[in-house]
Design goal:
Arc Repressor Mutant, subunit A, two-stranded antiparallel sheet, about 325 residues, elongated, 4 strands, single chain, 11 helices, mainly alpha
Length: about 325
């Protein structure tokens, strides 16, 4: 009589979010796979930093069995993309941690490329320890034979040999893990050239020239901070008598496509293409040879003056002395 009777029907299960048909956009019709499928995370399928080619290539690599060859030429034969595009997609996957390629040398001297695919970037490959060998069981020792009977034959007590201590298990051999060589540190860019005696007029001209670059090259859009940082370099060009049209042509000619970092490109060109100062008039004038003045000497014979570096006789006296000799 005290047991309560439950007569209310069970509650209906709550609808699963996403089962309702949306009014617009994609509609999913999913069928559960029983075999032949690969699990791909949304961090890869919806990655914002990878191209569509890289995402599809990562999904294809993760679906392959272990030991499958995924060289660039083999992938180019399998898909319609070119080798250049496939190589770029592989570099993208390496940069984002989905792929790691290393070269190792076998015992026979052959160099191979080992490729590791990660379905989750940042994971470490598990290191399987080497199984320890089982210790060999010690052989049972045979009991010693009894001594021959004497007058009062008494069987000697069997000698108990010491039980050998078990051999220590050998340590597992270290597993060699190929570590990529460290990349060389990048050399810092050269400093921006600084003017010798900047004036307010030169600063205004340099700032206007930098802000006006986007009219001649739409990709060179510089912020106010970039313009303020690059003004000293352009002032240095103006101090060296560079014409504004020449500066504009040096900064806007042959721009790369696509242009990703306009401020860095302008800074590099200002530093790398800086012209030397114009030489003055004295530097452009060829040097003149200094005239050598020969001193005057008095002839020892006729006391007539003549030019000669050394004292002696004049020409006439030397000519008169020749026939006499």
């Amino acid at each position: 009589m005290d047991t309560p009777q439950v007569t209310a029907p069970p509650c209906a299960p709550s609808p699963v979010p996403g089962d309702a048909t949306p009014s617009s956009g994609v509609i999913h019709i999913n069928t559960r796979h029983a075999a032949g499928f690969t699990v791909i995370g949304n961090h890869l399928a919806q990655h914002r930093g990878l191209s569509l080619t890289a995402i599809g290539l990562a999904a294809h690599i993760q679906s392959l069995p272990a030991g499958a060859r995924i060289g660039i030429k083999r992938l180019a034969e399998r898909f319609p993309e070119s080798e250049t595009r496939i190589a770029a997609a592989l570099r993208e996957l390496e940069a984002h941690g989905y792929l790691h390629r290393s070269r190792s040398r076998l015992a026979n001297g052959r160099v191979i490329t080992r490729t590791i695919s990660y379905n989750q970037p940042g994971t470490v490959a598990p290191i399987t320890p080497t199984p320890r060998p089982k210790p060999r069981p010690s052989k049972p020792t045979a009991p010693l034979a009894p001594a021959p009977p004497a007058e009062a034959p008494q069987p000697p007590a069997p000698q108990q040999l010491p039980t050998p201590a078990p051999e220590p298990a050998p340590r597992p051999a270290p597993v060699s893990v190929s570590v990529p060589p460290p990349t060389a540190p990048r050399t810092p860019p050269p400093p921006l050239p600084q003017p010798y005696a900047p004036t307010e007029e030169l600063r205004r001209t340099a700032a206007a020239l930098l802000a006006d670059l986007r009219r001649h090259a739409p990709g060179l859009i510089l912020s106010e901070g970039d313009v303020a940082a690059l003004v000293p370099g352009v002032v240095t060009w103006l101090e060296r008598d560079a014409h504004p049209d020449a500066i504009r042509h040096a900064l806007t000619a042959d721009l790369p496509i696509p242009l990703k970092h306009p401020a860095k490109l302008v800074r590099h060109r200002i530093t790398a293409l800086l012209p030397p100062p114009l030489p003055g008039t004295a530097e452009l004038t060829p040097p003149r040879r200094k005239a050598v003045v020969i001193p005057l000497q008095n002839c020892d014979g006729c006391d007539r003056a003549f030019r000669s570096p050394h004292p002696g006789h004049c020409r006439d006296c030397r000519t008169e002395q020749l026939p006499a000799a």
